[in-house]
Design a protein that fits this description.
Blueprint (H helix, E strand, L loop, with lengths): L6 E10 L2 E11 L4 E5 L6 H8 L7 E6 L2 E3 L3 H5 L2 E4 L11 H11 L5 H9 L15 H13 L5 E5 L7 H11 L6 E5 L3 H7 L2 E6 L2 E7 L5 H6 L3
Parallel strand pairs: 3-8, 3-9, 6-7, 7-8
Antiparallel strand pairs: 1-2, 1-4, 4-5, 9-10
Helix pairs in contact: 3-4, 3-5, 5-6
The structure holds adenosine-5'-diphosphate and magnesium ion (MG).
Amino acid sequence: MADAPAIELTGVGRRYGERWALRDATVTVPAGATLVIFGPNGAGKSTLLRVLATLLRPHTGTASVLGEELPRREWAVRGKVGLLAHDALLYRDLSARENLRFHARLHKLGEERAEQLLEATRLLPRADDPVRTLSRGLLQRVAVCRAVLHDPPLLLLDEPRANLDPAAAELIEPLIGRESGRTRVITSHDPVGGLAEADLALGLRNGSQALLGPTSEIDTAAVEALYR
Ligand code: ADP
Ligand code: MG
C-alpha cells in the first residue's frame, strides 16, 4: 500500500482579525515529496506554514499532517515537524550550544545530536557566543540546526537560504535539501531554483491559490505572473 500523504488540506482558511490571510487552500503532498510555495509579500505563504506547524489553527476547512488531524492532534504533529521561520525561534541571550541543548531536552534527546549539528554546520568556533552577537547568516545556520535537531519527517522552510552565501547554503544542504529524505514545504521567490528543487508548486496571491500543479507542468513564466 502506498504511504498516506504527508499533508492533506481541504478548504483551509485563516484570518487575522477580520482579514483573511489564507483562503480555501486545498493541496495534497505525498510523503517524501517537496512542495514549493511562491507568491509576493503578504500572499499568505508564512500563514500556511504556521498552520502546518500548528502555530495557527485554521478557521475553515480540514487539515491533516503526517496522518494526524488538526487541530485535534496538534500535540502529536509538533514533535514531527521542523520549522525554519523568519524569526529564528532562538533565545537570543543564550548561545547556539545552549539553545540546541535546551531544544534537545524538550525532545528528550542527548547532547551528542547538538554537537554533531554544530560541527556539520561549522558553528563550533562560535558555539558559546550569545546568538544575538551572530551575523544573520550564522544565525540562520543555528536555526537550521534547531529545525532538524529532532530529525523531523516533515520540514517547513520559510525562505531557508535568504541570508546565506553560496558556501553556507551548501553546508546546510544535506540537512534540509532533497537528500535529507524528508517531506518538505519551502517558500521561495526564485522561480527557476524553486521549481527545480520541488515536485509540486503552489502559487498564492492575496491569500488565494492562483497556481497548483506538478513542477514538471509549470513554467517560470506562470510563477513570474504571480508577482505582477
Ligand atoms: P507572506 O509570508 O506570503 O509574505 P503572510 O502569511 O506573512 O504572507 O501574510 C499574509 C497576510 O496576513 C498579509 O496581509 C499580512 O499582513 C497578514 N498578517 C500576517 N501576520 C499577521 C499578524 N500576526 N497579524 C495580522 N496580520 C498578519
Ligand atoms: Mg512570509
